[in-house]
Amino acid sequence: MQRVLTAKGAETRRRILEGAAELLRTNGTAGVSLERICTSTGASKSQLFHYFPDGRSELFAAIARFEADRVIADQQPYIEDLSTPESWRAWRAAVIARYSELGRYCPVTALVVEISRTGPEAEGIVVDMQTRWHALMTRAVARLWSSGGGGDVATSGGGGDVAPEAAASVVLAAVQGGASMYQSTGEFVHLERALDGVLAYVGVT
């Protein structure tokens, strides 16, 4: 049963969670110990175990949920209504702006490469995030093509035999690949080109 926290308790839990997530972004899971989290967030060990009784595994599952929700939230409100070329361009700009703000940290890479390995619950959260994101992009591609907004791609049925679901997989792979290259090289152009490729692939010129 999920515990009901007071407003103060919820704020303390969130402070610990956000501090732990920030440590993970800069140090990876190997560099995030419970002692370091306590030092960074000003929480005592008893407080940490009060809000995360199962310790490290529960905390990392909570971080995974926090970051997974943020991946989708960072693309709002555009991802819910990608039905026109203009909305796809606005989505691209929002993704670029968000990664520019985050620096070389990539929440998706952190989830897939780092957090998902901390336990089965965290892994399930990451899989669920990818499933939700793929479903949103599938609907987005379908809306664009059904409205004719994809130009020649739309009028040819999505570029031959390509279904929106398959196209969504290409979109996600391009975005995550470009973000991963940006993270590893520090060269922002890879992400920009990946997003340009996404727009061209779905027929937005």
UniProtKB/TrEMBL annotation:
Residue range(s) of DNA binding per entry: 33-52
Top-level taxon: Bacteria
InterPro entries: Homeodomain-like_sf, HTH_TetR, Tet_transcr_reg_TetR-rel_C_sf
Transcription regulation is among the record's keywords: yes
Coiled-coil residue windows: none
UniProt domain HTH tetR-type: residue ranges: 10-70
Annotated protein name in UniProt: TetR/AcrR family transcriptional regulator
